[in-house]
Design a protein that fits this description.
Layout: H1 4-16, H2 19-26, H3 30-44, E1 49-52, E2 55-58, H4 60-86, E3 93-99, H5 104-116, E4 125-131, H6 133-141, E5 147-150, E6 159-174, H7 188-196, E7 202-206, H8 211-223, E8 228-233, H9 236-244, E9 250-253, H10 254-262, E10 266-269, E11 277-285, H11 292-309
Parallel strand pairs: 3-4, 3-5, 7-8
Antiparallel strand pairs: 1-2, 5-11, 6-9, 6-10, 6-11
Helix pairs in contact: 1-2, 1-3, 1-4, 2-3, 5-11, 10-11
Length: 310
């Protein structure tokens, strides 16, 4: 009789692409996982993995066994999903992952709209957790999360990109700044000169590890923009607040300052269409794409994004 724990460990290792990632996901040590995989190989009397360069690949026999394991464990996942769909929404739990690079207030707006579509007694319980794109991708792959909001598209064939927002990146300043002329038709460098009135620009920047920061750095280089960075943060909401308080200028996706623009605490400098496009995705596991609650979440995501573009 096969040890199903060993089969599951093999399934996770093959699916995650290596012992390190699998051990981390399973919350066991790498030596312990390797030992149990060897026990399974002895039981089956076959080699499951072979070394190819620096990575472990499935052997032909390992591929066959993985196919059976996938059928077994995905069938179990489908059973759990079927049962959960029959449970009233009030008894459901929705776990949403948010990438560190995505603005939290934006996600809160999406979740609030989603919850308000359900009556008080029918609202599911929503849990929001944060992490890097890579961490959330792994948790989504193993269905520890129901959906993820991230700044990158999911490339894994098991995962589904449900919705995408493509919004302008705007040059923003506090509404208290005095602009001497109409900057809507000016390019970035000219708009900056108008607003700073000949003084050095004071810049508010996202963390150097962020995709948005890489886009800003490239834009600075192309347009020969200069100035002093006075504030840098890995929390987008803190950049928005610093713009409101008049600490400096910042390039921010319109999606993240839409409320402040409507309330006239933040001013957009230059063309309304922005200087480049910023993208945010709502993703889920492929087996969850037809879940009614996940589809309702996608509708809320799209509506908040459309409102931001006004």
């Amino acid at each position: 009789m096969f040890n199903f724990n060993h089969l599951y460990y093999f399934y996770v290792t093959a699916k995650s692409g290596g012992v390190n990632a699998a051990a981390k996901h399973l919350h066991i040590s790498q030596p312990s996982l390797s030992s149990q995989l060897k026990v399974l190989e002895r039981t089956l009397d076959v080699r499951l993995f072979q070394k190819v360069g620096r990575t472990n690949k499935l052997t032909p026999a390992g591929s066959v066994i993985f196919g059976f394991c996938r059928q077994m464990f995905e069938l179990s996942e489908e059973m759990g999903e079927l049962i959960s769909k029959r449970v009233p929404s009030a008894s459901r739990r929705i776990h949403i992952g948010v990438s560190d690079e995505v603005d939290r207030p934006f996600v809160i707006e999406v979740v609030s709209l989603f919850l308000n579509k359900h009556g008080l007694t029918q609202r599911p319980k929503v849990t929001v957790v944060s992490g890097t794109h890579e961490q959330l991708t792994e948790r989504l792959r193993f269905r520890e999360l129901d959906a993820v909001v991230t700044q990158q598209a999911m490339m894994d064939p098991d995962l589904e990109n449900l919705a995408r927002a493509e919004v302008p990146v705007a040059l923003t300043c506090s509404s208290s700044w005095t602009i001497r002329s109409n900057t809507k038709n000016l390019k970035a460098a000219a708009a900056v000169k108008e607003i700073i009135g000949g003084e050095d620009a004071q810049w508010l920047m996202p963390a150097s590890s962020f995709k948005l920061r890489a886009e800003i750095d490239q834009f600075f280089e192309v347009n020969q923009l200069k100035g002093r960075i006075v504030f840098e943060s890995d929390v987008i909401a803190s950049l928005v607040r610093s713009v409101v308080d008049g600490i400096g200028l910042s390039f921010l996706p319109l999606l993240y300052v839409a409320r402040e623009v409507r309330e006239k605490s933040v001013r957009v400098i230059g063309p309304k269409e922005g200087y480049w496009k910023y993208r945010v995705w709502l993703t889920c596991h492929g087996q969850n794409k037809d879940d009614e609650l996940i589809k309702a979440l996608a509708v809320s995501f799209n509506k908040i994004c459309k409102q931001a573009l006004g």
